[in-house]
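Notebook entry, structure prediction.
Reason for the run: the old model in the group folder had no record of what sequence produced it. Starting over properly, with the input documented here first.
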Amino acid sequence: MASEQTLDDQQQAPPPDETPLDSIARILRLTLTIAAVMLSIWLIGDVIMVVFASTLFAVILHGLARMLKRWTKLPYGAALAIVCVLMVTLTVGIGWSSGSDIVAQAAKLRDALTTQVYALRDRLAAWPQGQVLLDYLPASLGGHGGGNSGSGGLMSLGSRIAGSMTGFLGSAFGVMGTLAVVVIAGLYFAASPALYANGILRLVPRHWRGRGQEVMLVAADTLWAWVAGQALDMAVVGILSGMGLWIIGVPLAVSLGFLAALCNFIPYIGAILGAVPALLLALSLGLRETAMVAALYAVIQFFEGNVMAPLIQRRAVQMPPGLTVLSQTFFGGIFGAPGLILASPLTAMLLAVGDKLAPPLEDDERV
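New structure, fully documented this time:
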């Protein structure tokens, strides 16, 4: 009896005080762990982005299949098959009926933008203050900086603004291969989501699996809400931009509206990227039309930011604007262009997960 009491006292005895060497060792272990994690993210960043893009595509398929299942009472597998068939049919139909027109419009847009870049540079070169600006601009932006001038810098500027499509075509094999991996992996994820989710949960300690399940469900629901809201936002911006440019008389209004919708997938930064080609083409019509195009995009972005976004965020995902811009800088710096494109859904998911894991602030703890 005495031995059992002694054993209980030993088990309940507090651990000895941590020595300075123990503290240093603990800090070193934590630092090395963080450094190893950051190095791993840096080295396999492309793989991480492919996995996340596949997961996002799986969430889209899963959400559409669930909607169809709820409307038609079909089994989930049949609903997913119908969704996949409809997406393939729509893609093939658009490519078959309008593929040549799309390629022609893209080529026209590229040529028109390149021409306007040349014309804009010539105007700046004929203007004394513009010549000073060209002297300070780097060659990659069409200036004389860095020792390169003339057509070299200009072609670099054209390739950056109008050559996103040509860059896509130039790396078609790499892009198409990555898209194939994303589509195939996303299809497998959507076909058996429980299989992969349960496999991840098995890696979690048993006493954390309940919370892990809640976190995974919250992350999936957040991604689906973000995709649904962003799709609506992109459609509205694209339609308004195309109609407004057509009314003003800007050439290739449909292509520019579609480009504005695609760029709006990236909040804030995408709005600027979508407006630059339209402004360049409007310069060929005159300063009045250019001012009208600038006002059009300003009004559309004001409507999107102050009317559409609050309505969408009320039912979807609330993301602080400052954090959204900083996340694009952060993930873009780590993962490059894929990180910039996928920064918003990734940030929305991380915010939802953090909100689920972190306890809420009490009233006396708020600033």
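Summary: DSSP finds 16 helices and no strands in the chain.
The old model has been moved to the deprecated folder.
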